[in-house]
Amino acid sequence: METELRASASASEAEEDTGTSKKERNRKRRNRKKKKRGRGGAREGPPTPTPPRGDPETPSGDPPEVEIEYVSEEPEIYDPNFVFFKRIFEAFKLTDEVKKDKEKEPERAERAESAGVARKKGPEDGTRGSEGDSSEDEQEKKQEVPKLSKKKLRRMNRFTVAELKQLVARPDVVEMHDVTAQDPKLLVHLKATRNSVPVPRHWCFKRKYLQGKRGIEKPPFELPEFIKRTGIQEMREALQEKEEQKTMKSKMREKVRPKMGKIDIDYQKLHDAFFKWQTKPKLTIHGDLYYEGKEFETRLKEKKPGDLSDELRIALGMPVGPTKEEEEEIDR
User: Fold this and answer.
1) CA within 13 Å, CB half, 16
2) Does 187 map to a domain?
3) Could you tell me the pTM of the whole model?
4) Per the record, which residues fall in region Disordered (predicted)?
5) Residue 159 domain boundaries
6) First to last CA, the chain
7) Residue 89 lies in a domain
8) Around Cβ 311, how many Cβ atoms within 10 Å?
9) For the chain, what is the total number of helices (H) and then of strands (E)?
10) Cβ distance 128 to 118 under 8 Å?
């Protein structure tokens, strides 16, 4: 029994030794491979670029100068219906100024790069060229024209009222505020179009709407003339006088049980008032809006140019009477 136990113990120890020895061997192999890779990468230099076979070898000197010319494509439009669109395409063609700007783009990029490099430099490099830069900056400031604000530029480029009246077809529509518009010509054109509704005049007033009527006493409401003919006003006045004479008790009784049909007007009077004597009220025409102070303006609709009174005709030495128009035509 003892011999068997010793043999099994020795076998297990041999297996452990072989297992550990295998692990160590594998680890050593990995380390060797890593060392070889590191040495090989250090020895090998950067790969040399192989020139393409088809391209000829260019000399090591300056690259050849290439002139880029921008040519705009002309669309072939044969259909007469689309000929009007040719003008639109012509507006997008490259002109000489655009070509010059495109040629200057690489120069601008180079300047921007050089400016960026100068900014990245340290304080020592900046102090060296500070004296020269300061003198150049002073000269540039002297040469520069003082910049105007946007408000002043707008005022300088603005039309005067006289200039705008000369440019438009309807100068009688032009107002002093039209000059400040974004497009004054378009505004005047819209104002001059037929049946266009104007903006009320009080839009530019500093005070609030209808604030100027504070001191004016509002007259009491008056019935129209054709309703006064029915005699309703006299009947109402008589009823009010009777109610004033009544006691408080009778007034409270009438509130609880009111009596109807106190004012009785003849049907024929009402018919005549609304169908015979009714007159059309003063109405505003299309586009005539109310503005503050409109009711105080004098209306010249009744008087027409050319209709002169007899007194004025006598003063001017013109014929007076029913045949005055015929005599004027004979004189002409």
Assistant:
1) 6
2) yes
3) 0.37
4) 1-73, 96-151, 311-332
5) 151-203
6) 167
7) yes
8) 9
9) 14, 0
10) no
